[in-house]
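Running this now, will post back.
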Amino acid sequence: MKAKDGLELSEELQRGIAAYGVPEHELTFLQRRAIARLAEGKDVVVHAGGGRGKTIAMVVGILQRIAAQGKDSVQVLLVLPTRELAQGTDHIVRSLGAHMDIRTQLIVGGVQQARNYKQMLRELASVQVVVSTPGRMLDAIIRGGMDPEQVRMLVLDEADETMSRGFEEVVDDMIKVLPRDIQIAMFTCTMHPECTRVAQEYMSQHVSADEKKPKADTR
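Update: finished.
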């Protein structure tokens, strides 16, 4: 179904958005652009300050990609720099996707998580969205039950903070074990030098989504 702003969103996703309290007709240019590019399967860099709605755009775009392609065809890895951010984003994914028949798995540190860690890894093949921190995500890719070749999207949220914390090599290692044609999305408040490098090295003809006119990479 086409939303009021022209976005093609599934009915189940629209129900989740409404229940979460996000008026579809109030989505900003930044959000609409990011959602559309994510749903189309294109690489995208979303560079904007805090409070600009990046997280909502990211989650809606991810869920619409799953809705459009089928839950058995898309597996998304969503990487955040800290456990707290991962937990908060996992909650948003579950809330917005509440009416969709998808599975989400949060993998972070902690005593309770450690007890179930091996079991969680074994079950990853049937999960559509995996939310984790960089080190845990890399471990899940290497040792988990998922097939890396089935992963269709890698999303780096708060990418500048991830790089500032020294995870650039972990990000490189993740990308290298995933399919060469994987869709990569980066959401960041600032363009850390490592964010720029990752975009240039791994993101084919990525689109920049910001509050100005978007620019395509002309490499």
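The chain has one domain: 28-209. More later if anyone needs it.
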